[in-house]
Each structure stands twice: as structure tokens, then as C-alpha cells.
Amino acid sequence: MKKFTAYDIAQIAMLACFIILAGYFKIPTGIPGSEFQLSAPVAIAIAAVFGFKRYFLAGMIASVLLLLLGIHTFINAEISLIFRLTVGLIILFCGTSIPVLMLAGPIGTAVARIGLAFTLDIPILPLLIPVIPGMIITALCVWPITKMMRTIHEKVGARNSVPRVF
């Protein structure tokens, strides 16, 4: 098992903060109960660039922080967890090609909404139909965000020469 360095810990914490901050950027889509959150394509880009383990840890830290601050509820955390697991596993097993990244977000959103429907014991379609515009926007935004994040990581983040902490 690879031990985390101080650099790794700081990087995961910064990725968690990036996920939280991106969640505040919301675009209304014109359908009541529907909005696009920038955190979805940002999370997919993090999974593609930094790998499943860092992506999942950063996402869990973000969810715990939002729960502790009272910004999220357990239902929000459930949706986030299902989305993260679905997207992370899709990228882990299918790779980081453009089509995979474009499909991972909508699939993750759909699976998270299906999980929410089972939790709340309500029909799936009323939860799924309003998020279709956000799924489309996520699919369109994920590649430019991933490309930008990958470029920044290669130029800045690849210089990891910090000794291991624990």
C-alpha cells in the first residue's frame, strides 16, 4: 500500500475544496426543480486526472465538511456518494477517453436519482426528467474542464518531490 505524502494530503484537501466551491456555481435550466451544478464536471475531471482514490477521498471530505457545516443533508450526501461511486467506477474500468467522460456524468446522475427514488419511495421519472438539461450541460463541459485540469496538473502537480510523511 502506497503511503500518502504531505503533498498528497494537501492535494486531496485542495481537490475537496474545489469540489465544494464548484458546487456553488449553479445555472438554472428553465425547468422547475432543475439546475446545473459545476461540481459534476469538475468531479469527473478530478477522477480522470487524479485517479479514483484521490477523487473519492476528496469527494468524501467535501461531503463530510458540507454535512458538518449544515449545508448538506444526509440525502445530499447520499446523492453525492452514489454519483461518486458510479462515475469513479466507470472511469476506473472504462478509462478516460472523451466518450467515457461525457457519458460518466449523465450515468452517475441517473443512478444517483434512481437511488434517491428508492430512498424516498417515490417514482423515478419525476426525479429524472428535470435533470436532463443538467446532464447535457455536464456532458458538454466535462472535456474542456478535464483538458484544463490535466494541463495544469502536468505543468505544476507533476513536480512531487516531497518525502513521505506516514
TrEMBL record:
Keyword flag Transmembrane helix: yes
Transmembrane regions: 12-31, 43-69, 81-104, 124-145
Keywords associated with the record: Membrane, Transmembrane, Transmembrane helix
Superkingdom: Bacteria
Name of this protein: Tryptophan transport protein
Species of provenance: Sporosarcina pasteurii
